[in-house]
Amino acid sequence: MLRRRTLLSMPMFAGLAATARAQGTDWAKVVETANRQGHLNILHNTPPPMGDLWLAEFNKAFPAISVEATRLGSSELMQRFNTEYGAGASQNDVLITLWDDSLAKWQQDGWLRSFVPPEAAAFPDRYKRDNQIYTIQLIRSTLVSNKSRVREADAPKEWADCFDPKWKDKFGMDPPWRSVAIQEMLAVWDQLGIKDVPQRLKANGVRFFNGSAGVIQAVIRGDIQIAAVIDPPVISALADGAPVRVVYPASAIPSIATVTMLPAKAPHPEVGMVFLNWAMSEVGQQTLVDIVGATVIRPGTKPPKLVPGLEGQKIVLSTEVLTPAKQTAMVNEWRSVFGLQ
Fold this sequence. Notes:
- The protein is of the alpha/beta class.
- The protein has two domains: about 160 residues, D-Maltodextrin-Binding Protein, domain 2 (3-Layer(aba) Sandwich); about 120 residues, Periplasmic binding protein-like II (D-Maltodextrin-Binding Protein, domain 2, 3-Layer(aba) Sandwich), CATH 3.40.190.10.
- The protein contains 13 helices and twelve strands.
- Strands 1, 2, 3, 4, 5, 6, 7, 8, 9, 10, 11 and 12 form a twelve-stranded mixed β-sheet that branches.
């Protein structure tokens, strides 16, 4: 049974000793304890209805465990968790969100459980952080164009193509002062040797839109002809039959991790362990691909139907190029160039 949470109750922390014994020992006992606990509280920001459909697959795999899900935006989710742990514990067994530097502080403060799921062995090391934070999916930056207005031969294939004068007043993006994904993309551009970006894009008439969904809708309407945008709204547009094409540049693909972690103190610790292991399993990863449509981490998983998988792509993670100081300097520069001080 999958339920959206409407009222949170104070957790009881029975089973923590059992969790300590189960860590690295008998997985069958962990599953047995989880089935007895019988309830998963999960806090996530996977867009509806895909998130609910994916969680329902876990419930099918473990019918003795009911699922109560609360979906919040990333900022609200982090605020909720901060408030919970400020009171001494989490009311949730699992968290799923996009990577943010707040997660590193949670680690330092001892708020996250160290746990190595059996299925983690299949994942490359770069997607596992200190046995506490596991990447299960990537949000990738892409180049998109309107197929009705841009010929295949003219469509941009690389990031540097965005600066071509032929795209004057026809290129759009989310503004970097409101998007970490765009900040990462710009950091990758800098690594590729693309300099003076805000000045050059301003001169070429870049247009800003409200969020990635607003960007892709502007491409579909023809308000702009090309855009740099993360791939979830692109995948949705392709599924709807919209006249857009998508390119993942060969030079580098900026990517933000969708990560899963377990609170150190949670009401149903073994249930959280079982869910995390399932989310990293072949079945959990493949159902995530099939339902959400985006790429996942586990090698050997079949790629999405509408966009390419990770094989052969040069993935650059946000943690590899961004720091808080760099983000602040970037935002200040863009605000100055565009007169938004």
